[in-house]
């Protein structure tokens, strides 16, 4: 007891030091681990798509980040294996989804489908889908920015953007929502009509899809509801992500609405209302 009294200060300092070291190690490990969020992710020999595929890992695999280069991570996985993996295909444990509760706090990525050499679907008179997806995205962006949101477009002009680059933007920015705009097309013209809101990852994106779908009922084209959709831009997306087919471009009635000057504004109001509801319920 006498010894404890004599050295209590030293013991206290040592215990505090040990606690700080343990806390630092835990923080270091947490900030340098990640979980693969996509099925069958390739492990490459270097930081880029041009490098050889050396292995593959499955969804849910935990990896330890050793170093970074551009948007690639050099990781250790399965205890003793090493390789490069794309950063947008993992959830880093220090960048989990945040609970944004209003649009003014949100980072939102809008994706006008197609562009450049990729025209998308065609109307019965040869009008290109890419033209109308950009019009809608710009109108939505203007509406959301006016409300204080940080909005990023995957393209803001008639240029080609690869499919994989689109979700990569949302993943890199840790976006609170990703919305890809498209117009549907049926095998035969004038045989289908309606708006569909697609999601891929139910756990992160179904709530967003439902909130947006509930508000497109105000649009002149009828809603067909929400549905699962295996589209790369939402499949390879770790953020809340949906793809909206805002009518059939090769349907005469739908296209009359799609090509009208007021439709982009109407979509903007519907998307704004849907996002407001979505964030309020977080």
Automatic annotation (TrEMBL):
BP GO terms, sorted: cell wall organization; peptidoglycan catabolic process
Protein name: Probable cell wall amidase lytH
Family of the protein in this entry: Belongs to the N-acetylmuramoyl-L-alanine amidase 3 family.
Native source organism of the sequence: Lactiplantibacillus paraplantarum
SH3b domain ranges (all copies): 31-93
Protein keywords: Cell wall biogenesis/degradation, Hydrolase, Membrane, Secreted, Signal, Transmembrane, Transmembrane helix
Function: Probably involved in cell-wall metabolism.
TM region positions: 12-30
Primary localization class, coarse: secreted
Localization, UniProt: Secreted
EC number(s) recorded for this UniProt protein: 3.5.1.-
PROSITE patterns found in the cross-reference section: SH3B
GO molecular function, one term: N-acetylmuramoyl-L-alanine amidase activity
Gene3D superfamilies: SH3 Domains (2.30.30.40), Zn-dependent exopeptidases (3.40.630.40)
GO cellular component: extracellular region; outer membrane-bounded periplasmic space
InterPro entries according to UniProt: LytH, MurNAc-LAA_cat, N-acetylmuramoyl_amidase_3, SH3-like_bac-type
First-tier enzyme category under EC: hydrolase
